[in-house]
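Q: Given only this backbone (353 positions), what sequence would you predict?
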């Protein structure tokens, strides 16, 4: 029964069209490079060549902030040279690289720091090389299953209409008895993926959050309504479905916010979505470097970045993170876990971190 919690947006979120497109010359030797070139021409976009994405230093814009905003709407089409995959714990064994960068403006996004001064969007055209490397990783771990995460450095669903790379990955994994794909998105443009043969080897996850978080910290992403409607279509297409609630943010009224989130999910999801449903829970964290970058790029942000209110957690690679103190983290974990099991008793919580 509808409780009226879900409201369609007044305006639909449009697919991403960049303002500027760069090609690395080798990219044009690949059919995908040629296809993207044709698409960019049809869209009437300014097209430039660059010997390497590292040489893109002359983006338009007066201030650093303007340059940053334009970089987020700049597409670089190139080759993925490093075919050594990073690990991707806890969600998968490896990160599979198909794109880097994102057009959305989530204030908390860790790409702010990992991409540093190069926030433009890169898509890679040599998918065959990437899949060959994936095949080797699968063989090395046989007879264990190997999971690949495709959204570690980007939101690939938001770029699918340009690159078509997820389609290739999904169809490849469908043929691999020991290969699994997973990715997460905040976009609803799932149509090109619905009719694919996936063999249930791809877990499609949507990033969702309390209203307060989506409204204040996730500009230029699809609305909650759009995401959840897309999740229903994905479930109907037979994909295993999941939700990542991240970042979980302590804010005034957080219990109501997260309770309402789970109520809305329950109201919107078709029955078939709930039999094999997973949740991943990630509390908000930040590093000192991230704090500086976020405050420069989103100076009016309401994101709470006060180290004195947090617990310091040492990191594996030197720089530690600020997470919530144990009492707050436990309260968040317990409350949200209860809500999940109350609404979706058959679902599985993969982790809380
Ligand atoms: Fe970052 Fe994801 Fe937001 Fe893109 S949608 S800015 S990848 S958090």
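A: Predicted residues:
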């Amino acid at each position: 029964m509808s409780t009226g919690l879900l409201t369609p947006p007044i305006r639909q979120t449009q697919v991403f069209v960049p303002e500027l497109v760069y090609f690395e010359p080798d990219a044009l030797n690949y059919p995908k490079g040629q296809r993207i070139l044709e698409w960019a021409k049809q869209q009437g976009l300014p097209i430039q060549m660059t010997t390497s994405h590292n040489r893109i230093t002359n983006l338009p814009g007066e201030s650093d902030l303007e340059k940053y905003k334009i970089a987020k709407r700049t597409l670089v089409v190139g080759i993925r040279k490093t075919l050594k995959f990073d690990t991707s714990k806890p969600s998968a064994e490896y990160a599979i690289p198909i794109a880097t960068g994102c057009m959305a403006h989530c204030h908390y996004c860790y790409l702010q720091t990992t991409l540093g001064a190069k926030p433009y969007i890169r898509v890679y055209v040599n998918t065959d090389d990437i899949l060959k490397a994936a095949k080797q990783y699968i063989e090395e771990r046989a007879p264990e299953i190997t999971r690949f995460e495709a959204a570690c450095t980007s939101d690939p669903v938001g770029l699918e209409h340009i690159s078509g790379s997820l389609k290739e990955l999904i169809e490849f994994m469908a043929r691999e008895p020991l290969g699994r794909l997973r990715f997460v998105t905040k976009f609803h443009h799932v149509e090109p993926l619905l009719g694919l043969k996936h063999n249930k080897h791809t877990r499609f996850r949507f990033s969702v959050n309390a209203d307060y978080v989506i409204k204040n910290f996730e500009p230029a992403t699809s609305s909650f309504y759009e995401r959840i409607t897309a999740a229903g279509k994905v479930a109907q297409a037979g994909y295993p479905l999941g939700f990542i609630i991240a970042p979980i943010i302590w804010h005034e009224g957080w219990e109501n916010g997260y309770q309402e989130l789970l109520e809305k999910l329950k109201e919107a999801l078709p029955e078939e979505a709930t039999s094999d449903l997973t949740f991943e829970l990630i509390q908000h964290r930040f590093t000192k470097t991230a704090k500086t970058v976020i405050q420069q790029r989103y100076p009016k942000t309401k994101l709470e970045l006060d180290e004195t209110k947090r617990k310091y957690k040492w990191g594996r690679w030197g720089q530690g993170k600020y997470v919530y103190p144990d009492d707050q983290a436990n309260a968040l974990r317990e409350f949200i876990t209860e809500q999940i099991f109350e609404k979706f008793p058959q679902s599985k919580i993969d982790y809380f971190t």
